[in-house]
Amino acid sequence: MRTDTPPTVRLEDYRPSDHLIDRVELDVRLDPHDTRVTARLAVRPNPAGRPGAPLILDGDDLRLLALDLDGQSLAPAAFRVAPSALTLPEPPQRPFTLTIETRLDPTANTKLMGLYRSNGVYCTQCEADGFRRITYFLDRPDVMSIYTTRIEAEEAAAPVLLGNGNPVEAGRIEGTGRHFAVWHDPHPKPAYLFALVGGRLDRVSSTFTTMDGRAVELAVYVEPGKGDRAAYALDAVERSMAWDERTFGRAYDLDVFNVVAVSDFNMGAMENKGLNIFNDKYVLASPDTATDADYAAIEAIIAHEYFHNWSGNRVTCRDWFQLCLKEGLTVFRDQEFSSDMRSRDVHRIGEVRTLRARQFPEDAGPLAHPVRPKRYAEINNFYTATVYEKGAEIVRMLRTLIGERAFRAGMDRYFAENDGTAATVEDFLRAFEAETGRDLSRFAEWYERPGTPRVAISGHYDAGAQTYSLELRQTRPGAGSDAPPVVIPIRLGLIGQDGPLDDARSSRVTDGVFVFDRWDDVLTIENVATAPVPSLFRGFSAPVRVDMAMDDTERLTLLRHDTDGFNRWEAAQRVAARLMIGALRGEATEVGADAFAAALDSFLDARALADPAFAALVLSLPSESDLADDIGSEIDPDAIHAARYDLRTRLGTALTDRLHALRDALSEPAGTPFSPDAASAGRRALRNAALDLIAAADPTGGAACADAQIHSAGNMTDRLAGLSTLALLPGETREAAFASFAERYADEPLVLDKWFAIQAMIPEDGTVERVRRLQEHPAFAMTNPNRVRALVGSFALANPTQFNRSDGAGFTLVADTVLALDRANPQIAARLMTAFGSWRRLEPVRRGMAESALRRILATPGLSRDVTDIAGRSLG
Ligand code: PHE
Ligand code: ZN
Q1: Cα(291)–Cα(409) distance, rounded to whole angstroms?
Q2: Atom of ligand 1 at shortest distance to CA of 269?
Q3: What is the model's pTM?
């Protein structure tokens, strides 16, 4: 069993650093195997630290070549060195300069943390603790320094040399074939925001003029020959800059802003100061290679990283427990940006689907943690849906509670008061308290404990008194018995048989919001002329689960008449979920599949062509994992799959004429140029949602239709939708389509990822074998995170029946992959393992199989801290 439990870092143990580093001068001589880094650090004792404390610099896998202090080489007795630390037991009690030379092998760096090479391009990744793999340093975000970086490389191998901040100087080193560039970043920053890039890259650029009249040179760097695929990302940078000025009054603060796309990257992208480095999946787009979803993701992630320039960089985090301070806030900001660029209702529904698919299960399982965790063994395992997505929901609730005006003013104050510092969640909330005079201490509870609150609600209409009262009760599963009630903003309205009841009133509802902040409450609404249907949690105003006794006919009234788009969609989802769960339990529901189909038919008749993107969402049934989350325990994924398949078939059959008519009405004349805008994407989404149901009702006709679409499609969205539909229909047509797709896109790694993913998600017995076979495919590589995520990640996280096979073969496949990956790239191995996060909610046979796979992983000698942490907590 485990011998080494990873040491735990605790929030309560925080103390300021004993030393500060004001300036860093780095000299990096790039070489594939023998890179030399010389760091000159201006160190001084921190007045807030312990006087006379030793200087302990962090390292990870480092080799020290030379060390001197104020220009004198240090006697061996004056320091201790190991790959993981450099210690001066008795450093001078005054400012001094430490010069450290280390040697790195970027080609051998498969962890993709620190300095590494991706397809020959030198790049860095330092969040959360990768800078210590470049040089010995105080690698903690509350140590902020001004950096000057000189980068040198062979000119032919790396004609482009980029650093943080502004370019200062560049030139050739005559007679050596080498050249250099010097970059200076005037803004003090933590080491995790350091970056450099060196390589052969194409550049597309433009100029942006800030609201204060400064010209900024924008550039996106991509692999040679792919410049034409960078235009959309560049445009998204410009729109992000303009939006942040308009919406939050935030302007950019350097002369240049660079984005670099690399193909080997552990995460989505990274907000390094002035030099954002991206997984190329979130930069490269052309109609033939990227789907509408890809375009939307590029827009969102470009915005996200750019917005970090204020929420994360100018104001950074004091320690990693405060991660949500930058991530939750920045997700909220990018969601608002995307909502302004696209349809707000449609975007909100997408946000909530993501939250429910990823964060709710996390919060209900063994990996649950507070939005601000109190302890961690491996910080890289805390870049979670809870920190990001629930973190964003907290910011949104804050805005709902205090109103838009006060929210904007509070944000201004937060940026002004914390600019240039490393802040905490308390600093954030304090800005809003100062602005509004409110006490937010009870609201702060949202950060403190795990678990999704539940709100049980029942409504009573009193016709005589013309009142409608809502009885509310909250519980906090998973939060611990000492947890207090949370502050829950409920945006609400009442709907009558013919539309909203606008005369209804309550003194406890302000601007449509009721604040529910006790265990129990009763809200009475007056002047209610007829028995209403309540529309609660409009726009999903709080990240909670709601148990409302409401019959399906009432929900269908909401689908028809609610003015809140989110709740119209939610009503249809609830009815569909009840139908499927009812069928699986052998219970009857008051509205059957036929009545639901009839309601959908009239909804489509009235609204489909007016808002196709929204209609596509209404037509998409709750996913298998949504249903599993609703059911909550003793889950049998095969039964869920069967119930969902059955409802798709019934709806497809009942709506056939309508669906074919919609497809015709939405089809584009041949030769229409592709546009990724939201309206065009919405039309494609509805056509393809229709195709899905058509194929469920009529597999033969559906296969022909899907195959025809694959051949006629003028863009990747439609081609891939055709292939995804076909993927559910076993047979030769399908296999031929897979083969020709692979041939057509043999030289397009990002498209091949889609091909791997679709096959990994096939809900059939043969899929485990297929995935094992694809792991041997020449285009598959364990060293490329996108490929691992596409094939094994899709299998583990998006194929519930096959991953959870009752014979355990799916768990074994994923466990084998985790173990094979762990030594090379523990972060990706650990991420893959989170697929086991809901194992306790399975029925007993599958639960037992999952547990033994987890135990096998944990018992493997030499396991990384990343995987040990996830396996240990999953079993814990
Ligand atoms: N900070 C990155 C973001 O914008 C995520 C990230 C974390 C990237 C760690 C790399 C490593 O969300
Ligand atoms: Zn982020």
Answers
A1: 38
A2: 8
A3: 0.99
The pocket around ligand 1, CB under 6 angstroms, is made up of: 125, 127-128, 266-267, 269-271, 304-305, 308, 327, 383
% residues pLDDT > 70 (the chain): 99
- What gap in Å lies between CA 740 and CA 742, rounded to an integer? 5
Q: Are 839 and 847 in contact (CB under 8 A)?
A: yes
Q: For the segment 830-876, what is each residue's pLDDT rounded down to a tens digit?
A: 999 999 999 999 999 999 999 999 999 999 999 999 999 999 999 99
How many whole angstroms from 267 Cα to the centroid of ligand 1? 6
Pocket test for ligand 1, best of 127, 192, 317, 786 (most atoms within 8 A of CB): 127
* Residue 338 CA, ligand 2 centroid: distance in Å: 15
Question: Of 384, 386, 392, nearest to 452 (Cα)?
Answer: 386
Please give the distance, rounded to the nearest whole angstrom, from the Cα atom of residue 304 to the centre of ligand 2. 6
Pairing relation of β-strands 19-29 and 144-154? Answer: parallel
Ligand nearest to the CA of 131: 1
Report pLDDT digits (tens) over 210-234. 999 999 999 999 999 999 999 999 9
154 is an active site residue: no
Catalytic pick from 305, 327, 336, 554? 305
CA-proximal residue: ligand 1, atom 11 (nearest): 127
Pair of tokens at residue 817 = 């992959």
Q: How many CB atoms lie within 10 A of CB 592?
A: 15
d(CA 238, ligand 1 centre) in Å:
21
- φ, ψ (nearest 5 deg) of residue 492: -150, 165
Q: Prior bond to 463 cis, omega within 30? A: no
At residue 114, does pLDDT exceed 90? yes
594, two tokens: 């036929």
| pLDDT, tens digit (0-9, with 9 covering 90-100), for 676-718 | 999 999 999 999 999 999 999 999 999 999 999 999 999 999 9
Q: Kindly list the distances between the CA atom of residue 448 and the CA atoms of 70, 93, 439, 488, 605, in Å, as whole numbers in the listed order.
A: 45, 39, 17, 15, 47
**DSSP 8-state class, residue 205:** E
Distance CA 492, CA 489 (A): 9
Which one-letter amino acid corresponds to residue 564?
Answer: D
> What is the sign, positive or negative, of the torsion defined by CA atoms of 241, 242, 243, 249?
positive
For the stretch 514-567, pLDDT in tens is 999 999 999 999 999 999 999 999 999 999 999 998 999 999 999 999 999 999
Q: Which position has the token pair 């001078």?
A: 92
- The confidence score (pLDDT) of residue 1 equals 42
Closest residue by Cα to atom 9, ligand 1, is 127
- Strand 121-125, strand 144-154: pairing: unpaired
Distance from C-alpha of 511 to C-alpha of 603, rounded to nearest angstrom: 29
